């Protein structure tokens, strides 16, 4: 399973989402929508071995998490406003209790809580915090494979998928440093010396996993 936790320190967590002002009034919800699309969508479909959790931390009210599970999703298309509309429907509902997931529609789940709740739910997965100042994510002195051998794969029908391979989670933030909300005990890795936008970083992570590139996951 490929997991992505996207932290939105200013993203609104409840109320009427202003679809015409997602960059301002919604607390940079546009950034989260692009990250969500990069995590879940391919050119002609959905990544069924992937889930994305948006962490809405900007209020009003308590922090909220919205989880999109690729193997269960229906009706999600590659258009930012349409994806934002799915989020808008969730924000109209009361925030559930922390750690309690409520399915709002096919493959879209809603819960209270923060990144610490998510990490506890990811127990057993390799968790990587993306940080341009950290060691590289890929193993040193490794060449890109000529033939892809994905680290995770899936097979089955909608809602009944078998997912196999690596269980890995990535944590990304907006402009707030991850060090302010995460423990130093977690593994930090970079995708290069430049700070990439979140959706671009997610695409690179998928590429490395799709190709079966050896990853540098040992704690250091």
Task: Please provide a written account of the structure.
By secondary structure, this protein is of the alpha/beta class. It contains four helices and ten strands. The protein has a single domain (2-211), classed as Alpha/beta knot (3-Layer(aba) Sandwich). It has helices at residues 29-40, 80-91, 115-121, 198-211, and strands at 2-8, 50-56, 64-69, 102-105, 108-112, 126-130, 152-157, 160-165, 168-173, 187-189. The strands form two sheets. The chain has an eight-stranded mixed β-sheet, sandwiched between helices. A two-stranded antiparallel sheet has the order 7-8. Helix 1 (29-40) packs parallel to helix 4 (198-211). The protein starts with a strand and ends in a 9-residue tail after the last helix.
Please render the helix and strand layout as text.
Blueprint: E1 2-8, H1 29-40, E2 50-56, E3 64-69, H2 80-91, E4 102-105, E5 108-112, H3 115-121, E6 126-130, E7 152-157, E8 160-165, E9 168-173, E10 187-189, H4 198-211
Parallel strand pairs: 1-2, 1-9, 6-9, 6-10
Antiparallel strand pairs: 2-3, 3-5, 4-5, 7-8
Helix pairs in contact: 1-4
């Amino acid at each position: 399973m490929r997991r992505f936790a996207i932290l939105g320190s200013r993203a609104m967590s409840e109320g009427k989402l202003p679809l015409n002002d997602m960059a301002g009034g919604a607390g940079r919800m546009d950034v989260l929508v692009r990250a969500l699309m990069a995590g879940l969508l391919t050119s002609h479909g959905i990544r069924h071995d992937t889930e994305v959790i948006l962490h809405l931390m900007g209020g009003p009210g308590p922090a909220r998490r919205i989880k999109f599970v690729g193997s269960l999703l229906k009706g999600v298309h590659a258009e930012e406003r349409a994806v934002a509309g799915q989020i808008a429907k969730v924000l109209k509902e009361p925030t559930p209790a922390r750690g309690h997931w409520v399915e709002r529609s096919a493959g879209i789940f809603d819960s209270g809580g923060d990144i610490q709740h998510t990490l506890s739910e990811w127990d057993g997965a390799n968790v990587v915090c993306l940080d341009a100042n950290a060691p590289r994510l890929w193993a040193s002195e490794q060449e890109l494979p000529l033939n892809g051998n994905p680290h995770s794969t899936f097979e089955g029908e909608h809602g009944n998928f078998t997912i196999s391979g690596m269980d890995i989670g990535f944590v990304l933030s907006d402009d707030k440093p991850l060090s302010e909300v995460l423990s130093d005990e977690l593994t930090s890795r970079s995708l290069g010396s430049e700070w990439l936008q979140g959706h671009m970083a997610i695409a690179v992570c998928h590429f490395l996993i799709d190709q079966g590139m050896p990853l540098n996951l040992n704690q250091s």
